[in-house]
Amino acid sequence: MNSKDKIKKIYPLAPSQEGMYYLWLSDKESRQSFVQIKAVLRGELDVPRLEQSMNALVKRYDILRTVFVHDNLPRPLQVVMKERKFRLHFEDVSGQAKERQEAYLLQWKQDNKARGFDLSKDLLVRMAVFRTGPQEYRWIWCNHHIILDGWSFARVFRELLDNYRLLQDKREPATVETSPYSHYQEWLERQDKKAGIAYWQKTLAGLERSRGGFPVTAQVHSSALDPAGKPAVKPVIMSVNAELGQVRMERLQQLARACQATINSVFQAGWAIVLRQYVQSDDVVFGSIVSGRPAEVKGIEEMVGLFLNTIPVRIRLQPEQPFAECLKQVQQQALESKAYDFVPLQEMNQATDVKHRQLDHLMIFENFPFDRRYVDNVESKDGLGFEFADIRAEEQTEQFNIYVYPQDAAMKFNFNASLYEPWLMEQLKDQFVGVLDQIMADENIPVGRIEVLTPEDKRKLLEGFFQSVRYEQADQTLHACFADQVRKTPDHPALLCGTRTMTYRELHERSNQLAHVLRRRGVQPDDRIGLRVERSVEMITGMLGILKAGAAFVPIPPDYPADRQAYMIADSGMKLLLTTSPLGEIPFAGECIDLGDPELDRADRGELLSLSGSRHLAYVIYTSGTTGKPKGVLIEHQGAVNTVLARRAEYPFDGTARVLQLYSYAFDAFLSCLFTPLLSGSTVVLATDEEAWNPLALRDHIRDRQVTHLDCVPSVYTALVECLSEEDARSLRVVTLGGERLPAKLAKRSREQFPHIELVDEYGPTENSIVTTLERNVVPDRPLSIGKPLPNTRVYVLNDDRGLVPIGVKGELWIAGRGLARGYLNLPERTAESFTDDPFYPGERMYRSGDLARWLPDGRLEYMGRKDEQVKIRGYRIELGEIESVLRSHERLSEAAVTAWDGASGDTVLCAYYVCAAPVSAEELKAFAMARLPAFMVPTHYTELSRMPLSSNGKIDRWALPQPDVTARETAEAQAQAVPSNPWEHRLAAVCREILERPEIGVTDDFFEAGGSSLHAMLLVSRVQHDYRAELPLHVILESSTIRGMAAFLMDNSKAEPQPIVRLNKKERRKTLFCFPPMGGLGIAYYEFAKQMDDCTIYALDYIDHPDRMDRYVKLITVAQRDGDYTFLGYSAGGNLAFEVTKAMEAAGYRVSDVIMLDAYRKTEPEPVTDEALQAMWEGYIATPVIREFYKNFRINELDLERLKQYSFYIYLLDNIGTVQADLHVVHSTQPEDELRHPPKDEADQQYRNWQGATSGRVAYYQGVGGHERMLDPEHMQANVEIIKGILGSAVVR
Questions:
Q1: What is the pLDDT of residues 637-650, one digit of tens each?
Q2: CA dihedral 22, 24, 27, 32 (to 10 degrees)
Q3: How would residue 975 be classed by pLDDT, with cut points 50, 70 and 90?
Q4: Which residues make Cβ contacts (< 8 Å) with residue 543, sequence separation at least 6?
Q5: Are 274 and 454 in contact (CB under 8 A)?
Q6: Residue 1077 burial by CB count (10 A; 0-12/13-18/19+): exposed, middle or buried?
Q7: Which residue, 126, 170, 483, 538, has fewest beta-carbon neighbours within 10 Å?
Q8: Which of 570 and 1170 is assigned the larger pLDDT?
Q9: In CATH, what number does 237-360+399-452 get?
Q10: How far apart are CA 372 and CA 366, in angstroms?
Q11: Looking at domain 478-850, what is its CATH homologous superfamily?
């Protein structure tokens, strides 16, 4: 654009154009508005004539000669050029084989699309013709949507061929535009936008966020962005077609006429009924495309440009309303909105409540209505010499669109397959057609009675996803099944605990003795007997003895608070309590039986006749309750037996299997992983209470006992993975996880570290006999799921009306089948609420779990959280209301709330919020809670509020509660005291920061008050062992719970040399940097530096005082980073060491791309020196002021001191001879005069320059900030970090 003479007109953009223009400006690589249409031409085509026809169109229509500009303008403008020349692209590929033709054409289309359009200068329409054979061509049309919508393209297409015919007949095409697009823009400028906004505000008022939606693929979410801020996964467009048929379409047209509505309104109302099931609301909204051609604009039908607008269609359904009435309302709303459909959607989003609902799909009618005279038409071939066939428009969509073609009696679901899977679109298509058939058959059918689910959907949801199995032992009791196994394998080890081993016969006879003793006390079926024991052989004999006596056992963990134990004893109505320790002050009016009583040894060992049957109680498990008191769940033998037999059939248990049992017996999963091996002839390895929380002890069990199966919660396995070696885990076959959600990163870590171990995920509430669903072979490369229902178990996913929801839609999980509990002890009303009649299987019951889930198309279930205020911690189900009730009972609190926060390490943290009536400290509240609640229910964090945030209905707004601030420091003095002062404090601080997910933790902070739990403590034990090869016993963490206290223990007791490499920031980054130590020899010197290098994974290496140090460095580095180029950094002496390691890496065949020398001189030709001179030099070095200041508060052990000494000797005697291939980056200090013994500036500059001959790559120099010893001090750190980041960002990748 060189002169105003070339410009015909300048005017503003229409709102819909502005939206596309800003999209192009923000992401010029996006092809969302790129239109590509292809077709086959059959016949004889005159290519120059087709180009001439197109040039006539370009000459006639201003919009085809328009470009868009915005530089130095308050708003963008469209500029119509007086002339533009169109050139058609033509190629003859007919000489190629068909396969090569197709490949070539596909590549051309992709390249053309990738080329895109530059809106500021390009002609925004392109056309190409490829001759593929005699009388056959491929025609490809491309344009940017900003100049043409579908209706306009149809006109341009028709006129293109009309021009061709005119030219063929030696006549001139029309080149004068009667109604330019600018007239439409002028009309838009005159509209009352305020009135339009007011109409849409009224129409969309009160629209709330939906509770459901269409299921997206688990691999990607539409909000996922790549590092550049663009969508991480590019759209992959697919379509699903539906042929409605002319008969069906005619009947729908009749329905429309009968209700005085358009066919558009019929489809919109029908779609609203389908959508209702997915968003789980009677108030639905979706997008619709309107033509945007107002009749009052003269010549609007002849105009070419972008007129389309997207408007929201809101339909409020009433379940009792006849469909015909609903249709009339939809039609009335369409007529009312027509006067205001010029308002841009973007402005509606800002001004109305539609912002609460993402318009994730559009319904579009008659897109690209081609003139049929030219498509598959004999008349066309006779008149033009060719015809078009197989015309296809490649529509772009970020999500999905429904195209309705009434003229063709067809529909098409066009969707982004990166977001939605084809099965979902097929399902929506079938359901939509089914709804259309029902309204067609009866226009007065109530909306609520229209079935969205198809018969095939119902078959899957009520039958196909379940399996019914008749087990041989199905009607037996647990103890009868065990007796059957005793007869098969009497002498096989059944139980290993500590130093004790019991065979099946010994366990059977010992439990028989206890059963005889209990029978003599008059025990009857359904009696409840307490079992209050530590993890021991007595625990197992106690369970079996109670069952054999005919009663049900009630676990009473002795570590529970006394009040809770007393409540459970009283509520259960037990008259007998088996124990191994005195009750103390816990009241109990019944009889206590000591499991160590000699009377048991004298009792009869023979088997008893069974009093109980499959419908009698087996056990009562107490779970958390909303009333502030736990509730007892009554489980019968038939449910527990079904679970155990199903697991036995599922898993490869046999005589070689050894199952490590870690669960608390107060958690019902203990029973499934106890009885499954005991009914299979396998061996149970029972960890003691102390061992069950010590990952190093568990590691030893797994290795020494040759454990094959492990059952535990994911957080325990997370700690185990940290300390298990490949050799330790060699015997493990299956790890079964349950009790809490399985983190995807744990599945990934397990598969990477132990590919031979099968991971299994089990899910199930206590109310359905332990396990409801299970997922075998959990792998990280497919969406995590809780698996399929166990045999004889039915799972329903229901909406709030207890109706089935479609596959893929989130709903509440209800359970039915053989495993259901009898109910809750002494709570008939709560039982009636939770256990209701099964509407799908009359005469049976179903249980309301409160969990949210969705079906996957293969019959597996995906867990999606809780509907109520219940959480799971370490497998225990916790009602937050129970904790709140306890806190509110404190006399100085006026209000309390408890929430759960998910940690990145997979754990769940409880946080208490409270409002004081009188002053009370967080420490006092925690002690108050600990005296009344089990440890796993005591909140970790306590936050005082001036008042509780409330929602509009007056309830506590839990979403508005602040995330607890666990990083605050009370005083500057406390902060100073919190600084690590020795290597072990630095190491532990780094590990604790990661485990507790805190940006900072002081060495005087209490580990548990800072957010640590017993599971975090287990993880700390594992990490210290794994990272530093040192043993930090669990009791030390419990007794000396500050970093300083733990570090003191390790300083005094750790004889093992820590790993000379440590990762200082654990989250995955794209770039990895290995840092070599300055004088002192400890990589922990980079501790603060690593915190600021937030876009880099930092590994710090210590000096290795060993002759084969180079081989060791190579191995350490290549294990930490298994592939790719390596990048090193060395500060001071670390630069010299980094250079030597680079030589070793290159000699071993690895590529180091860059070495950053942070104020490091090249060491060359050291002078000979005696040992005495070296010692004297060392003593002088550690006596210097800078070094004295550095170590003033830094207590180091003899090992670290010796390393520092040997490192100084190594560096002094070092000669950095030879060359490397890596690029060297030398960052030098400011060299102030008062610095310690450094050469003058000229000499220093020369020593920097000595690196010039040390590489065949390039050497770059940078001016750093601060003197030599001060470059990583806080006041200089940020400036030098930015220099290093710049180096890493511009490093050449070869």
A1: 999 999 999 999 99
A2: 110
A3: very low
A4: 511, 531, 553, 619, 665, 674
A5: no
A6: buried
A7: 170
A8: 570
A9: 3.30.559.30
A10: 13
A11: ANL, N-terminal domain (3.40.50.12780)
Structure-token pair, residue 442: 């009866």
Give residues with Cβ within 8 angstroms of 388, minimum separation 6: 39, 40, 41, 139, 370, 374, 375, 376, 380
Task: Single out the residue of 392, 396, 184 nearest to residue 304, CA to CA.
Answer: 184
Q: CA 1294, CA 1292: separation in Å to the nearest integer? A: 6
Alpha helices in 321-421 (DSSP H): 323-337, 345-351, 378-384
The distance of Cα 1125 from the centroid of its chain, to the nearest Å, equals 29
- pLDDT more than 70, % of the chain: 89
Rounded CA-CA distance 593/519 in Å is: 13
DSSP label at residue 460 = I
- Quickly state the pLDDT bin for 222 (edges 50, 70, 90): very low
Res 622 pLDDT > 90 = yes
Question: Does residue 4 surpass a pLDDT of 50?
Answer: yes
Closest CA to 650 of 686, 671, 679: 679
The answer to whether the CB of 1025 falls within 8 A of the CB of 694 is: no
- Is the pTM above the cut of 0.90? no
* Cα dihedral 436, 438, 440, 446 in deg (nearest 10): -110
Tokens representing 220?
């990607």
The pLDDT, as a whole number, for residue 876 is: 66
* Dist CA 756 CA 730 (whole Å): 8
Domain borders along the chain are: 4-177, 237-360+399-452, 478-850, 869-948, 1060-1290
Closest among 403, 395, 151 to 267, alpha carbons compared: 403
> DSSP string covering 546-577, please?
HHHHT-EEEE--TTS-HHHHHHHHHHHT-SEE
* Distance in angstroms (rounded) separating the CA atoms of residues 1019 and 718: 7
CATH topology of 4-177 equal to that of 869-948? no
Q: Is the pLDDT of residue 775 over 50?
A: yes
Q: How many CB atoms lie within 10 A of CB 352?
A: 21
Predicted local distance difference test score (pLDDT) of residue 952: 44
Cα dihedral across residues 54, 55, 58, 61: positive or negative: negative
The CATH number of the structural domain formed by 869-948 is: 3.30.300.30
In sequence order, what are the residues at sequence separation of 6 or more whose Cβ sits closer than 8 angstroms to the Cβ of residue 1096? 1065, 1069, 1071, 1072, 1073, 1285, 1288
Other beta carbons less than 10 A from residue 725's beta carbon: 12
884 HSE (CA, 13 A, CB side): 20
pLDDT, one tens digit per residue, over 62-75 is 999 999 998 777 78
CATH class of 1060-1290: alpha beta
Confirm if 53 and 163 have CB atoms less than 8 A apart: yes
The pLDDT tens digits of the residues spanning 649-699 come to 998 899 999 999 999 999 999 999 999 999 999 999 999 988 888 888 899
Q: Rounded CA gap, 437 and 266, in Å?
A: 12
Residues 392 and 1245: their CA atoms lie apart, in Å, by 69
Q: Where are the beta strands (DSSP E) in 818-855?
A: 823-824, 835-837, 845-855
Average pLDDT estimate for 268-294:
93
Rounded Cα gap, residues 979 and 1195, in angstroms = 12
b/e map 89-112, b = 16+ CB within 10 Å: ebeebeeeeeeebeeebeebbeeb
**Which residue is listed with tokens 């298994």?**
1122
Closest CA to 908 of 778, 1051, 697, 741: 741
- Residue type for position 555: P
Which residues are CB-contacts of 1285 (< 8 A; sequence separation ≥ 6)? 1093, 1095, 1096
Using CA atoms, how far apart are residues 595 and 586, in angstroms rounded to an integer? 18
